[in-house]
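Annotators were shown the component list below and the corresponding predicted structure, then asked to write short factual statements about the assembly.
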Amino acid sequence: MKKIIKNPYLHFVLLGLILALVPTLAKMGLMKTSYLTTLGGTFIFAIAALGLNILLGYSGLISLGTAGFMGFAAYLSAYFTADLALPFELSIILAVVIPTLLGILVGLVSLKIEGIYLAIATLAVSEILKKTFEEFDFFTNGFSGKTAQYPTLLGTFELDRAGTYYFVVAILILVMLLTYNLMNGRLGRALNAMRGSEAASQAMGVNLLNHRLIAFALATMYAAIAGVLYVHFVKYSYPTIWSLNLSLNFLAMIVIGGLRSIYGTLLGAFIVFAVPDLLLKQVPFFSDLSYVLNGILIIVVIIFYPNGLVHMFTDLKRFIVKLVKGEK
Amino acid sequence: MSTFIQVILRSLETGSIYALAALSIIIIFRTSNIVNFSQGAVAMFNTFVVTYLFNTMGINIWLAALGGIVSAILIGILIDLVVIRHTKKVHPEAKQIITLGMIMIVLGIAPLIFGVDPLRLPRLIEQGNLSILGADISYNGIFNILFGLLVMGGLFVILQKTKIGLAIRSTASNEHTAKLMGVPTKTVTMGAWAVAGVLGVISGVMTAPMTSVTLHIMDDVQLNALIAVVLGGFQTFYGPVVGAYIIGVGRNLLLYYGSSVWGGQILYILILVFLVFRPHGLFGKKIIKKV
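Structure shown to annotators:
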């Protein structure tokens, strides 16, 4: 029994079931329906942030192109489903594979050297992509923005907003499971060893370039998945969405939430995206400051609490246990 | 021929803007070991200060620019005292993320103080054109080129010939040893942030008349400066400056003779390809790591 309760896979599925309750709660009037859009958006951003967390948390590389790749996938998917009328399943595969291949190409160029090069190379690539979004009218509809529809699964099931929300939650849980498995498997061990000592891991037969490349490809793939979900959930895409600001927000999420933590990433996404929308908007002055608060939070967390806020709960528990025991 | 000279002259002007920004990034990198992504954002903020002093308070443009320089020094010192000084134990990657956090803070605060409307900042020298071999360049353009070279030349003389420069170079080469030798590394780092801020605002004031003063006025300069640093290599002070002029000239030539829409983008791709063959940049050396 204890074994079943402690099973991490079960935790992910349970979390998924709880998150899937939201539309029902909204229907019962316990929650505003607008929360559905906010939460769905948060989960989509959490998917992209998970990929970045593999890259930054495990291999210490910074990508500033997350938003660019995400936008690229979003436009591709919108183009495939709306203009070419491809089935949703095919377009999602194409829209994930093409940006990932582009990511691998960029990685091959910039990952030979460690350190900051990937950040600057991805920054340049995302600028190039943003320009593409603005200039290629037939593909992206330029500044006026591209619209897309809710997904139609298997050609017959037309999803509405709640249906798409369930779809997003399902993908989120799948991505979390995949990440958990990868990071506790061979790849995770190799990346961990690289973080500990590059020379030692190299001596043990870990190919540095290959593993960095895999980590970056995963980050791009997750960003692409998030981009596809975004365009079909929010139903539009403008060039201005996919800016450096969004990429910075992804970094904020994982740093605030917790590096190398799957739940931390979700917590971070919630703090960065949902809290300003759900809470701060009620207070007029703070709504303007949410970006500033995120920036301050990043700096404060890095300096004083480098493991991220997700460890707050365990630290708090330990503190309380200590207090209780101390009183005895 | 005259158009070619015209293009080159323009390029030198943008090149000196990029070079000032690149120098500002490399000074921070060498003394604090941080790639300062917030350089452009802070420069944008200080350019807004200049614009505010000129437009709202009606101060003479030269005095307003001086005010911007003062604010750049103060903000640079503030960043060092409040944030950077406390990051000695922080992991190097986390330091870059701190500067990304600073971008968010600046981008959030600037519209609260200065509003969201694009503002206009005139040239330092309003009128006058000079004709060189059939190519026209404004006095302001010449001033920008010469002033940029003067500031950079001055900094290099200080770096190479004076005691202060020696302190900066020794901090850059090994902070711990420098400290043991009695170099006040904390002051050096603080000074570096102040100087970097000043270089930023100068490049901002030079950029402003070509466009309008908005939150994103320095984005383009910042990106090109970062790429210039990569192109020139992180190991020398002069490498990024050379890289910046190469980017300035190459970009304008591509924009004029190549594609007016995609010129900049083509240049980025060329530089990325160049880095495949020389990963440490034009003047960079490979640092051999010992286990």
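Statements collected:
1. DSSP finds eleven helices and two strands in chain B.
2. The mean pLDDT of chain B is 85.
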